[in-house]
Q: What sequence folds into this?
């Protein structure tokens, strides 16, 4: 009897939590992983969208450490992974302060992109990795810009505005890296 009561209580808690959350599962698109109508998204959804780009960049960097044959790509990926690990903790801390439940799952499009990348090897891998990380870094930067301009919560807006210069510096660094690798033969 106690188990049944606990079960009903757990279900009630879950229903309460999910009814109060406005987050929807991430949806992928067939052409662009950043293609989403941000106007209708809640603050938590916008925050999670930015967070998902952070996750894919961190995972791509981890994969590059294993799959790349270039010492330059591995060194860059090691730095990127460390930077994004720190940034991910900042996202988590702030989400906890704002009572935002973070979605650790990637969209189907992101998973597919990562899988396709790991099928490559050698300089083909390195060049595609550079293009991929450049694109997803741009998506992250754009998601932060959207977050800082579209959210209704002033604390989230302030946080996103304050962290944007850091993200933009990563974007610049990534763009330079991508340009350099694309010129390799």
A:
């Amino acid at each position: 009897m106690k188990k049944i009561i606990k079960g009903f209580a757990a279900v009630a808690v879950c229903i309460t939590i999910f009814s109060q959350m406005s987050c929807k599962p991430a949806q992928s698109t067939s052409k662009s992983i950043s293609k989403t109508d941000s106007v209708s998204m809640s603050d938590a959804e916008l925050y999670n969208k930015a967070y998902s780009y952070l996750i894919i960049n961190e995972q791509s960097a981890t994969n590059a450490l294993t799959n790349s044959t270039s010492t330059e790509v591995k060194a860059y990926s090691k730095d990127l992974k460390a930077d994004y690990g720190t940034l991910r903790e900042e996202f988590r801390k702030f989400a906890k302060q704002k009572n935002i439940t973070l979605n650790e799952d990637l969209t189907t499009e992101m998973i597919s992109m990562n899988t396709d990348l790991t099928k490559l090897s050698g300089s083909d891998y390195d060049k595609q990795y550079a293009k991929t990380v450049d694109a997803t870094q741009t998506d992250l930067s754009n998601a932060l810009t959207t977050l800082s301009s579209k959210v209704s919560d002033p604390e989230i807006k302030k946080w996103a505005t304050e962290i944007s210069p850091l993200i933009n510096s990563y974007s610049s660094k990534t763009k330079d890296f991508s340009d350099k690798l694309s010129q390799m033969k």
User: Anything to note?
Assistant: The radius of gyration is 19 Å. The longest helix spans residues 122-150. Confidence is low (pLDDT under 50) at residues 1-40.
